[in-house]
């Protein structure tokens, strides 16, 4: 409940808050970008004066409570880029309930907490931090300065059914401390996934569809575009051909990943491209009705021939937090551009 209060109060004050609980993937926002900062709050002090209401005629308790209270909250702001707490402050808030209600103590506490959130939102040092210049996203491999050249895999020309076994072997499950995501080989040693799947880690454990586990290092990342590259040791892994030409509306597409449970790795779903949507950062997404769920993040979106055209990363859920056909994918060409990955050749040969 306190998370909902924080989200509602900050959103009402026009802060760009991500992590809407109504979204299928907890780390995604309305514009489906990763948060630059994480804010945590700890209630350090509660002071309350409450009245247990009684029936004036019988003297028996009504089961309602009125009164007032105050809280003191310690806030910490964590930078997902610098990977450290960059600001700490304390705010107070007060709540008052004149008319007694059932569970009045909690109502007073929630109102007081909401006041503390509003006072945090008015903190000028916090506002200055959030308005400061965006941090660089270049990691140890110098994404902005050094292009990473990769070999181009010939495009597939037959229907996806002819290649599906090899494609499923090219998709991996990526384990993290808070869950799992998906990824896919773009070269025999490089795996494309989402930045939010790697969770700022440098080392990741990947599981192949055969069940074998391998270790990889995150060598490139772009938080705003929500993409990352994991490098693994050479072991004969099959890359998926990359199609650089954009998909078209109504074009048939397929998604492969590990939805909901790692045991469901290699799950294939089918749909069509619905439209193209730009988020608040001005980055274009592919919207498609192909079914994906939490755990699909970082998985591949394929055309009808089995060529990679996008990266799964977000979806809007309905009741029960299940997919309703409003799912979003990063165009593969944009993912490569943001990671400064280029092909050694210019043409797109077919096989």
Descriptive overview:
The protein is α+β, with helices and mostly antiparallel strands and 351 residues long. The chain folds into two domains: 37-131, no CATH class; 148-343, Thrombin, subunit H, CATH 2.40.10.120. It is 15% helix and 41% strand. It has six helices and 17 strands. The chain has helices at residues 2-12, 104-121, 124-131, 164-169, 195-198, 332-338; strands spanning 37-54, 61-79, 84-101, 148-150, 171-176, 179-185, 190-193, 203-207, 213-222, 227-231, 252-257, 267-278, 284-288, 300-302, 308-317, 323-331, 341-343. It has a six-stranded antiparallel barrel with strand order 5-6-7-10-9-8. It has a six-stranded antiparallel beta barrel with strand order 11-12-13-16-15-14. Helix 1 packs across helix 2 (104-121). The longest helix has 18 residues, at 104-121. It is elongated.
Q: Averaged pLDDT, please?
A: 85
Sheet with most strands: strand arrangement: 5-6-7-10-9-8
Net shape: elongated
Biggest sheet record: 6 strands, antiparallel, barrel
Low-confidence stretches are 21-33, 133-140
Helical amount among residues, as a percent range? 10-25%
Number of domains: 2
How many DSSP E strands? 17
What is the number of helices?
A: 6
What name is given to the CATH topology of the largest domain? Thrombin, subunit H
* Category from helices, strands and their pairing: alpha+beta
Cα-atom Rg, whole angstroms? 24 Å
The share of residues in extended strands comes to 35-45%
Task: Tell me the name of the CATH class of the largest domain.
Answer: Mainly Beta
Identify the CATH architecture of the largest domain.
Beta Barrel
Q: What is the H/E order?
A: HEEEHHEHEEEHEEEEEEEEEHE
Distance between the termini: 55 Å
